[in-house]
Amino acid sequence: MNFVDPKELDIPSHGTKNRYKTILPNPHSRVVLRSKSSNDPLSSYINANYIRGYLGDERAFIATQGPMVNTVNDFWLMAWQEAAPVIVMITKLKEKNERRCVSLCFVQNHREIKLTCSRRLHHNRSD
After folding, report:
1. Domain span at residue 18?
2. Where is each Tyrosine-protein phosphatase domain found (predicted)?
3. 32 contacts 44 by C-beta, under 8 angstroms
């Protein structure tokens, strides 16, 4: 469980970019988006944290929530900014017939970036 106090983030309206009110990024290791707008602290916000790797690298991995319609651009900005060589999505796109997450497996142009899904694996495990 995440016990981050929302007051620790000190970013007005950050709740609009969080899937759940109670699952927040830890301020000490959160990913900060490099934004063109220094006047808008929300433009640098994404609900994501760096995770230490096996060899002690403090930024070996990034954990984030599945992107929503209003955060998918932030997700791809983060992937580009952090030069993510691999993206692994471990989530259900739908739960109880309700869309929970934007699908990342597609072929599409996103601004100047061409995205291609090279492999897609489905595992229907519930354990």
Report:
1. 6-92
2. 12-101
3. yes
